[in-house]
Amino acid sequence: MSAQPHIAVSEQLDDVRYEIRGALARRAQELDRQGYEVLHLNIGNPGRFGFRTPETMRLAIIENLSSSEAYCHQKGIFPAREAVVMQQQNRGIMDVTVDDVIMGNGVSELIDLHLRALLNIGDEVLIPSPDYPLWTAAVSLNGGKAVHYPCPADNGFQPDLEALESLITDKTRALVVINPNNPTGAVYPRSTLEALAELAQRHQLVMMSDEIYDQVLFDDAEFVPMATLATDTLCISFGGLSKVYRACGYRVGWSITSGNRSGAEDFLIATEMLASLRLCSNVPGQWAVQTALGGYQSVQELIRPGGRLYESRRTAIEAAAKSPWLNLIAPAGALYVFPTVSGLDHFDDHQFAMRLLEQHHVLVVPGSSFHYPKSDALRLTILPDPETLGSAFERIGALLSEIASE
After folding, report:
1. pLDDT of 321 over the 90 cut
2. CA dist list (Å): 134 to 51, 128, 286
3. Which domains does the chain have, with CATH numbers?
């Protein structure tokens, strides 16, 4: 067979990373195939840890399969979009209709779609650091430049508002907020969200609010929808079934446009055109939306004391508190913990994560993979049961002890 020329990778991938399913995850799969029992804590995938989508949602899909074989409207089926509108109205967001909702194959697709409609080459988007890396990747892949505003650990992973504003230039087009936050678990108080909304409005930025974990809250944390605050600029909010309703594989997400739409007509037409180009999103999964949003919110059982997520979170907090090397800001929401490591010279999160995988068969994600400026953090999901998660922290502690003695 003759030699083929080297196939170069697109330069647009230069700033794209997704270590959540990168080299470490590929090595974990190799170990799985070799017969090792690897504990995969790299991704918030509820179904992998025994969580089930509520039965009523499964039945809604089954009962409507005969109505799911044709393409639907490019924005989604009416009952799903109507259910999203009703949820928004119940939250005090009254200026939305079904025409303002687009159903997507998960939030990921919709983030890419809206950024593609918005960005020209070199346009800048403000993204939190740490971030969910899809946001940075989607900006880069659509020709933009991701500008990361700091959410430092010593401020509880809350945005540094002064630093954020100093990063705004005449090329800045949008401000991204991830609340509750992935990867840190931070939940932003109303005062912070009001300041972010005011900043976006004053600088005429499109507000993009990733709210996929909106009901995964612990203790007295309060979720405040950004659309209730960002009323004088264009606000795009993102939600879906994957986390709150444990339905990742359904690939059902939605975006809601609200706020000041003056001057946004062309952008909104462009987003619908892009939605049309992919014809429509997964139709069967959309039939679960009305049942999910209008029915009993079973996630509440999981996030209260005694609930599995709450108790796994407690296990992580207690394990970190006992460690001489781990520092953990207790997550107020979402499905992750983001501990930092101190007291060890030259700690490298990537090297540690690989050693943890090879020697102790636990897969975590290095904190720097989330555009965090330091190499001293790890992200783990709290989806395992408390006993399993406790075992993972024991193995992390054993490796940290080993490194300390070297």
Report:
1. yes
2. 24, 12, 23
3. 11-51+301-405 (3.90.1150.10), 55-294 (3.40.640.10)
